[in-house]
Every structure is written in structure tokens, then in C-alpha cells.
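User: Assemble these into one structure.

Assistant: Restating your components, then the assembled model:
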Amino acid sequence: MVQKKKQRGQLIVLSGPSGVGKSTVISELLSERKDIYFSVSFTTRQPRVGEADGVNYNFVTREQFEEMIARDELLEYAEYVHNYYGTSLRVIQEKLAAGIDVLLDIEVQGAAKVREKCPEAILIFIIPPSFEELSRRLHRRATDAEDVIQGRLCKAKEECKQIPQYDYLVVNDTVSEAAGEIISILTAESCRTRNRINLVEGV
Amino acid sequence: MVQKKKQRGQLIVLSGPSGVGKSTVISELLSERKDIYFSVSFTTRQPRVGEADGVNYNFVTREQFEEMIARDELLEYAEYVHNYYGTSLRVIQEKLAAGIDVLLDIEVQGAAKVREKCPEAILIFIIPPSFEELSRRLHRRATDAEDVIQGRLCKAKEECKQIPQYDYLVVNDTVSEAAGEIISILTAESCRTRNRINLVEGV
């Protein structure tokens, strides 16, 4: 009844407001699911303290980014707080074809573009337990000036209006719970009949 | 952002061919998720050795069952190998409204009727690793005569044609893996945006 055929990889999009703790959740997720390929985005913004080129982002100049746009090399890109953020298409296609799950950390505009181009992508939005808690987390991070923080909080409320386009909603109350829910979502998606039907003879 | 409102319970339908090990998977699942209410079906078939009334099934006579049909008390019912199997509607509705997840163990005809009446139900089909393994399991059980076993194997192939109506496909290779996948499916479904959107203010 079952023939073990290689499933195509799943394309997973994670979004969430700045300060929600997405990077921490992603680290936890990747330590549990080492088979997932985390797609490092390209950006024109300045590295924060502790961020490394090729790890957190591929940091490029505005000119380099606009060349990638011109050569149609991006799955999606968006401008956000005066900086470009984008995702390379070629690497992702290779990984998915090889049966490897690919994780993208992108904001709501980018997610909408991925949904258009890859309707089978799994879109997950991470929310904080409350706006008050989001504000506390942004202040605790202490990497941004007060007006930038206020801008991020305002942006967060705007972004939440895009939640209905997401398949799943995960509350980052504790990192381990949030990562656990995402792992369950990925397991469940791999059990979807449409992804496993080729395992059954004669159907 | 988040207001803890009680979610409605999820209606979960588990199907799978006779001998696939569904009862064992269900026991494992219920020992991990004690909050799930397992809906005991009504049937007119004879109890097998070790089966108890009100636990495995509510065992009733053909006359009693036909009265329930006449009073429209059943969410679904079906005749299968010359016996009726059916599910009481009232209890299920109460549990779901109270936010309790309800698990139904029903065959493919019944599942199709549940899907019609409750489009939001989660339909999961359990398959064995192979037909050869299914045959081995049916013989190992040693509760049925050879011609009954052959009938069940033939029926199993027929049932597998209904797999496309199911949302998820779980392979019962080991009981703990199968139960684990079902638990992940239930967690993922509770994270669906449509089930959590009321947690977010202003969306």
C-alpha cells in the first residue's frame, strides 16, 4: 500500500512584528529540526550588533539589490522602513526539489508575494501575547531609539491586519511552546492527504 | 492583542481498514490527550472477546438501532458487513460547544456523512505500511475466520479509494509515531488562523 517516494520539500513562511521574538523562535525550531534549510534573506539595512553577514542576512548595498531586482532573481522583495529585504529564488527551488523543507523569515508584503507565486506555501504568523508585551520586548532589546520603537509598534498594528492571509497563527508566549507549535504544523502539513496520496497504491 | 476566548472543540474523525491497529492508536492518543472526548459508537454487531458495552461500543439490538434512525438521533450511521454502526448527535454537540475536542472512530461511509453535516471536521485516515502487513495483522488477531479476513482485506482496498476525501493520511508503522502524528495534526488545526483570529484585537 505504501511506497516510500520522496516528498517535495515544504516552503514555510514565518512573519511577525519586529520584537515578537521571531529570531529566537527560529533558532529553537532549527535546533529541533536540523533538516530544515533556513533561507537567508538579502537586505540593504545595516547589521545590528551581533549580526553576521550570510548568517542573519546577506547584507548588500542598495545598488547590488537593485541589480538583483533587474535580473529577476528574487522570489519576493519589499521595502520596509527605508530598506530593501528580499529572497533568492534559485536556491529555494533546488532545495524543495531535493525534498528539503525551506524556511523563509519575511514580512507581510513579501509573504503575500510568495503566496501568489507558490500557493502551496505554508504561511505562519507569530504574534506576541499582547501589544504591551511587544512594547516591553522592543524596549528590552535596547537596540533602537524611542521614535523607532514607536514606529515599529505602529507598524505591528498595521501588519496584524494582514493576519487573515496566513494559514496559521502562533502566539509567542514562551519560545519552546511557539517552536513546538510550528513543529506540529510542519508535521501535520506533511501528513496532508495531497502530500501523501502517492504513497497509496491504486488510489 | 490576545484575548483568551474559549475555542469551540474540534470534531475529529478517524477511519482506517479493519486490522490497521486503529484501536491501539486511539488508546495511545487518548492517554496522551486526556482532554479529548472519545465518542462511543452504537453498533448491532456482537462484542468481540474483551470488548465492553459503553467502552468499545454501545451494543444495541437491530430494533433499538432502527428506532434511533427513526427518531433522527444519529449524526451518521452505516451498515457494514451486515451490522449497523452509528454516532449519537446530541452528546457531540454539547461537548464541542463546551470547547472539548471529540474523536469519532467511523468508517468511510460515515465519515462522508460527517463531512456533509460538519464541513469543519478533521478527517484522518490510517493506513497500514502495506497490504501484506495488514493481512499479517488480521491473522495475528485470530478473532475472525479466514473467509472473514479475506472479506476485510477486499473491503480495505475498496475503502482506500475514499482516501482523497480525507484531510490527513497517517501510516500506522509504529503506534507511537502514528499517535504522535495525530497529536501534531490536532495541535496544528488549533493553530489555524480561522480558529484563532478572535484572539487578535482589531482584525
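The first helix of chain A runs from residue 22 to 32.
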